[in-house]
Amino acid sequence: MDNGFNQKYQLSIIIFRFPTKVIINYQLSVIIYRYYLGVLMVSLKQVETMIQTKLPDAHVVIRDLTGGGDHLEAIVVSSEFAGKTKVIQHQMVYDAVASAMADESIHALALKTYTPEAWQKAGQPA
User: Element (H or E) spanning 71, and its range?
Assistant: First the structure.
């Protein structure tokens, strides 16, 4: 019975046992490995759009932290965060990207959330 495990295991051995001989860089190996496993990739613009759909007034900046496309940082500035704790603010953003996290398109998401007033106090441009 072949459930794909053997093929996935063999590919992981090829990619990670001989990374300098088979794959030139880590980012490419992650992308190939994720593609082989059937994990969908999501663009930074798609993540930005997901967040702006839930928080229409939000100013959103998305960065790829590792080059693999699945460890991201989001800076989100929205007036909808006013009067809410950081935990609630983060829950609002996680709710916006829930589908991408559920299918593992996003493995990790570091969040920095601000109200427009807090953003200006932090010395950032409006």
Answer: strand 71-77
For residue 24 the two structure tokens come to 């030139």
Residues with Cβ < 8 Å from 92, sequence gap 6 or more? 54, 55, 80, 81, 84, 113
Q: Which residue has the tokens 């996290």?
A: 101
CB 57 within 8 Å of CB 78: yes
Q: Judge contact between 52 and 58, C-beta under 8 A.
A: yes
Q: If we measure between CA atoms, which residue out of 93, 84, 96 comes closest to residue 112?
A: 93
Chain centroid offset of residue 37 CA: 18
pLDDT at position 107: 86
For the stretch 50-106, pLDDT in tens is: 999 999 999 999 999 988 888 899 999 999 999 999 999 999 999 999 988 888 888
